[in-house]
Amino acid sequence: MSKQRLEGKVAIITGAASGIGEAAARIFAAHGALVVIADIQDELGASVVASIGPDKCKYKHCDVRSEKEVEKLVGFAIKAYGRLDIMFSNAGISEKLTSTILDVDFDVLDNVIAVNVRGVAATIKHAGRAMVASGTRGSIICTASIAATRGGHGAAVYAASKHAVVGLVRSAAAELGRHGIRANCVSPGSVATPIVQKLTEMSQSQAEEFSEGTMVLKGGGPLKASDIGEAALFLASDESAFVTGQNLIVDGGVTAVGAIPPVPAAQVKSNGAF
Description:
Layout: E1 10-14, H1 19-30, E2 34-39, H2 42-52, E3 57-61, H3 67-81, E4 86-89, H4 106-134, E5 139-143, H5 156-176, E6 182-188, H6 194-200, H7 204-214, H8 225-236, E7 247-250, H9 254-257, H10 265-270
Parallel strand pairs: 1-2, 1-4, 2-3, 4-5, 5-6, 6-7
Helix pairs in contact: 1-8, 3-4, 4-5
Organism: Phoenix dactylifera (Date palm)
Protein name: Short-chain dehydrogenase reductase 3a-like
Family: Belongs to the short-chain dehydrogenases/reductases (SDR) family.
């Protein structure tokens, strides 16, 4: 396995001023990619560029709700680095976790859909157009969620938006495959990102403790933003050259097995259940 898995590649990462996007930007740059960090948090974005190094990345303000800004973002990356190989469409928001289907605020719904669905569609459209025009066998990665696999892992509007992301990506994989362009999702479980801390009103340590507690897979600590970044690295790299239309779930087994681990057989026997 090559140490520099993205050597010579150019990547855009939206929502990269913090959380999963920031972690991915650092990982991509460490593996040789030139990265455009896109966000609406300008000071944080500039700070990430300074930390990684301006020779490895640049910052571009982009509100993904605006198709025009997304189009300009793609143009900025190509003008700066001459090509576009990877689009990691990661920007996303949620309504309050206490919201229910019985009290949906439709202004909030419109905003969540505008970021999580419209924004993803715009990034796929304009990254895909650039890749087709240049003949690049690119990789488009979109952040979905374990909320995209079943109800109950997020508020209703957020869950609906992430189901839509998976549908968009699978459709993009079907349409763009003939051009050699791959499209995949990465679906995180509970990660203690700044947005999660804000929505849950938890400290980082509390959010990490909650994350670790939900997972079936024990012993590795809480799920971290860097774990999702590493999954995105795989999908961005040539190691996943024939992986497309997939939803890579990174959640410590929560969606496959359940949030509460099964009782060990030995313990069941000792309790007289057999």
